[in-house]
Amino acid sequence: MPHGPSTESRTQEHAARRRQTIRHRLETCLPGARLTGRDSGLQAYLQLPAHIAEQPLIRAARQHSVLARGGCFYTMTDTSRPPALVISYATVDCTGLAQSLLALGKAYRDMTG
Question: What global pTM score does this model have?
């Protein structure tokens, strides 16, 4: 019986491709934003430029059918951290993720003019 890649390695491979999609689209869609954290997991933490307010961007993203959480959703006490978005890519393929990032970019441009 042939042995193929394990489910875990396929999952890691899919997540790596999705994270690479984020890296390739980030500067175009969200100028000045920075992908932080390790290359594991199923979410991306995007640190926003200091002049971008987290909550208004989240609201603008929803107007473009993109659901994202702000970094503040994940902390209760650290109000000194820079604005951020946390996006999940667990259930979306690379094409869907790229489309979501483009829509997020439209929301970003709506805010910044």
Answer: 0.84
CA atoms within 13 A on the CB side of 111: 24
Q: pLDDT by residue (tens digit) across 21-38?
A: 999 999 999 999 999 987
Those residues whose C-beta lies under 8 Å from the C-beta of residue 73, and which sit 6 or more positions away, are 86
- Helix/strand/coil (H, E, C) string of the chain? CCCCCCHHHHHHHHHHHHHHHHHHHHHHHCCCCEEECCCCCCEEEEECCCCCCHHHHHHHHHHCCCCCEEHHHHCCCCCCCCCEEEEECCCCCHHHHHHHHHHHHHHHHHHHC
pLDDT of residue 39 exceeding 90: no
- What φ, ψ does residue 2 adopt, rounded to 5°? -70, 150
**What is the C-alpha radius of gyration for the chain, rounded to an integer number of angstroms?**
15
pLDDT-derived band of residue 1, with 50, 70 and 90 as boundaries?
very low
Tokens for 23, please give them.
Answer: 């890296």
